[in-house]
Specification:
Blueprint lengths: L2 H7 L4 H8 L3 H9 L7 H11 L3 H12 L1 H8 L5 H16 L10 H5 L5 H24 L9
Helix pairs in contact: 2-4, 4-5, 5-6, 7-9
Length: 149
């Protein structure tokens, strides 16, 4: 998601963020051209101040919009801090090591019937964390995954 798209959804412009939060125009212009993961915290805080959210909430909005894992967590209202921290930690590891995990999906989960949806959501998240942790351990041990065929 681009900065201007996010701001438009909230009825504000870069100029308004600049005025309210005191962030230089050049900084906001640069943010529009860069991936949100490269922004400094003051941009998230300034946007949050302008639209009535915290900087962390703004960051969460961007992560949710660009990551199927966070979309899944938001859809099923998963807010357990320990779960979120563990997933963020693992995803940060992959980002730092240029390992693409963007193809993760929950299509199978979405297409199956569920007697106890919340219990099944927690099982799916547990499986995800286990898979990501295994991938990380394999990478650290020098055993990267083989390409899927």
């Amino acid at each position: 998601m681009k900065l201007d798209d996010y701001l438009k959804e909230h009825g504000v412009t870069r100029a308004k963020v600049t005025r309210i939060a005191g962030i230089p125009t050049a900084t906001m212009d640069a943010a529009q051209k860069r991936d949100y993961r490269l922004w400094k915290a003051n941009i998230f805080e300034g946007i949050g101040l302008t639209i009535g959210k915290t900087g962390a909430m703004v960051l969460d909005d961007f992560e949710t919009a660009s990551n199927p894992i966070f979309e899944f967590l938001k859809k099923y209202d998963v807010k357990d801090p320990a779960i979120l921290l563990r997933i963020r930690s693992l995803l940060n590891y992959f980002d730092e090591n240029n390992i693409d995990v963007s193809k993760i999906s929950f299509n199978r989960f979405e297409n199956e019937p569920h007697e106890d949806l919340q219990a099944d959501v927690l099982v799916a998240i547990g499986n995800l964390i286990t898979s990501l942790a295994t991938m990380k351990a394999n990478h650290e041990a020098g055993n990267p995954p083989s390409p899927e065929e």
